[in-house]
Amino acid sequence: MTLKNTEIKKPEGKLGVLIPGLGAVSTTFIAGVLLVRRGLNVPIGSLTQMGKIKVGKGGETQYVKINDFVPLADLKDMEFGGWDIFEDNAYEAATNAGVLKQTDLDPIKDELSAIKPWKAVFNKNFVKKLDGTWVKKAPTNWDLAQMIMEDIKNFKKEKNLSRMVMIWCASTEIYQETIPGVHDTLENFEKALKADNTSIAPSMIYAYAAISSGIPFANGAPNHCLDAPALRELIEKMRVPVGGKDFKTGQTLMKTIIAPGLKARMIGVDGWYSTNILGNRDGEVLDDPESFKTKEVSKLSVLDQVFQPKLYPELYKGYYHKVCINYYPPRGDNKEGWDNIDIFGWLGYPMQIKVDFLCRDSILAAPIVLDLVLFYDLAQRASMYGIQEWLSFYWKSPIMEKYEEPIHDLFVQLMKLKNTLRWLMDVPLVTYLGTESYD
User: Fold this and answer.
1) Among 280, 321, 324, 292, which residue's Cα sits nearest to residue 304?
2) Mean pLDDT across the chain, nearest whole number?
3) Cα–Cα dist 32/412, whole Å
4) Which domains does the chain have, with CATH numbers?
């Protein structure tokens, strides 16, 4: 992350939220914002809307709501637009997703129905379990990128927007690594776009279009897009904030809560077996081994960083970590994450922890989307560009600047997030060297 100056522009005017993928997560997010700003519900799970931050010391200590402490955009100023491979409007998509009850959707039916997706950039080679019917056609990937940028310009003009954020809420693509001559430099990448190279994923085209337009881009899936050196070069050139990857919900959220506690108490781990049962579109996509590989890499990265087996070989060397995802259509969006953890304590005596998390994937993801949109808009107005590692709190697999290692301990991540907000507002950071213990 780089800071150009310390001035934070006020959140004046409308904020456009650009979403590739108007499916379960995004429609749950949009519906929630519409309900909250009408006063019909409460933004539970959103740090920006419900969280408080400690300011001051001793008798001057205050706990201030985060959205009063830093200048965040108001929910009433948000406008929503996006792309999808199906033509359903946001109300139809939300109804089909089955996450929210009709009693929640009906009061905002007209507003949701007015949000109609633009045709999406889609390549079945990257998401093999889906067949898109509402898809852009163009001679090359370069032309597709220009079409996305045209959608963005039209949306900005139509809604009279002052600024925008793009957040990827579409499917997980197949596993991919950097390909020399395609993803390694911006020059090669743009040549490959114009040559319609088959190794350029749709998420990369969206990221390229957003960043080229000076718009922050957040990657809510474990896709490779922001890892590509070519796009890192473009980020530096355009001076925009970016981040990802993969929203931290469900099972990985539990791991980043439980694993740091075990490590803090120096409790050993022999193995951690995780399985998921999921029946929504995400589950269907991940039923393909190549897409699952992308998700698996994201999920597996967490425990090694927390446990540091090289530093603590007596406790964690050789521990076994297994992750499975099972597509089970009857479950819908109500995911079940089951973990069996084989641990050992004093004198090596074995114990077990079993966790059965009956969660709702989109319900956990929606407030993350809201917070990320607001924080990336804040970063843009504060002239903070590059990878926003201070927002690692929200990601399964946080991307980092070169030579930096991600931190997966949820509580360390939260401390870094709040201290960054204090730093932005020029108030003393909390270090816990005193006697007060609340953040």
Assistant:
1) 321
2) 93
3) 28
4) 2-247+362-424 (3.40.50.720), 250-358 (3.30.360.10)
